[in-house]
Amino acid sequence: MKMKSLKMNFNHYMLKNLKVLVFIVITNFSANAQLPPVFGNSYIGKFNQSQMVKTYLTPQKIIWMSDSTGNYIQNVQSLLKKGNGQVGVNDKNLCRLISKDEHKPSIILDYGKEINGGVKIQMGIRPDKSPLKLRLRFGESVGETMSDVGDKKNATNEHSLRDFVVEVPWLGSIEVGETGFRFLRIDVVEDGENAPIKSIDAAFVYRDIPYLGSFESNDDRLNDIWRTGAYTVHLNMQNYLWDGIKRDRLVWVGDMHPEVMTINTVFGENDVVKKSLDLARDQYPLPNWMNGISSYSMWWLLIQKSWYDYHGDLSYLKEQESYMIGLLNQLSTFINKESEETLNGNRFLDWPTSEDPIAIHAGLQALMVLTFEAGSDMMGILGHEDLQIKYYKISKKLKRHVPKGNTSKQASALMALAGLKDPKQVSSEVLLKDGVHHMSTFYGYYILQALAKAGDYEEALDVIRKYWGGMLDLGATTFWEDFDISNVPNSERIDQLPSSNKFDIHGDFGKYCYVGYRGSLCHGWASGPTPWLTHYVLGIQVSDGGNTIKIAPHLGDLKWVKGTFPTKYGILKVYHEKGLAGEVKTTIEAPEGLNILK
User: 0.90 cut: is pTM over it?
Assistant: First the structure.
């Protein structure tokens, strides 16, 4: 293990908005890390290297405490001060938690932003040398920290422990927890305690990579949404690319598609994508569907196409050749003589459509078209002209069947993208029919894409402001697994204590796998506005294996927009400004070797 100083390359977003107080060096395994010589040759190849780093964050705010008299909680503001990370026998003015039969003190801390990791608690010297028992409750919302596992609002300890008791040693420290959280409640468990607490700092674990892409406009709300989507995915870029940092902490391939598009936009080429795609391939050998879901196997193929389009990694594409051909051939057996998809396994688009078989069929039909079009393109890249023609003909065959009766926004968006329905008609009759109601955070990305295909860029910006901005208005610092705009009226923000006369936006709503507090408030599939704003508003359209970028901005109601984009040749910088007559003046600073089209 080696030590290195924190490279604070969260870009200006982290410096400006997270306001982290870093007071200790970061520990990390580098790609070239080696065990100390005392381990000997017998340990070679027997340890896993982590690409994560860790730093410690001081709480930003005390949300609540059980006592304001000073009888049970004293000098609590000391917990908000940056410390030196080391307990000492002469530490003074520490926070004191004093418990008696009639009262056991509790406090809730706010670390300012959702993070992945745990907490480090340090206790000073006191006459009683026995450990101090504390109950810890991590929460993505304040309400979650006030809950009990198994209560009516569905708080759980599934996937990651967030409610448990620990012992803090006398004149020492303990570091525990591995979950997604912003808030922490601490309760003294036993009576008769008088504990001097030096610090309760969050142990933040993340991938130390620079934000190469950026987006800035005259609309601060859009800017915040772009950055929040980027940060949401960044937190999920752990040793593998997860769907959520509290739940499920798994590689779900469908979730990966919006995440990968965000990674392409913000971080550029990163091995966590290939590592996760390969894991899914190897965990689900054919004829299995990835994650048991036929659409997720199709998303795997669509990700492969997008990955090549952006980075031109032909050697990686060739590694997938055998599996891709096998999967495409398997998919081709699930088409009947009427050109309808007949996919088996778990027939799933997203949760809001999961009980609507008409929508599911329409969405799967569209995904089959998109998948075989992508498969045909990839076979052309790999030099298989026969398969290129074969898969193109299958995509054309699938287009002969246009599902009827679908009214869902999710499936309609896919049908517009696949050319099964006119995008303009889909936009006016379905996507914009009732504003941002009946959306989903996952398929919101494809709804935005369909609006762009219809030429409704200004309307898409309005959707982003209202839907994803609605989460920000409720205190979100990362985007959520699910969000229903109809739940917003009379709901409390996630950074406030739930009140009796308002709904708890986290605990009172949700269905399917995300009922109540089990719902994830940091879910990578919700990051769609980040790549969408870069692709359609900043106008960065990538092709030719990342060798060519067409600049085609659509500012909508914006006055100006600027940003950066990571390419295989370096950073592309673009600035657009709208003139008085509506004309757009563009300034481009492109790296050498990149082909720019206007």
Answer: yes
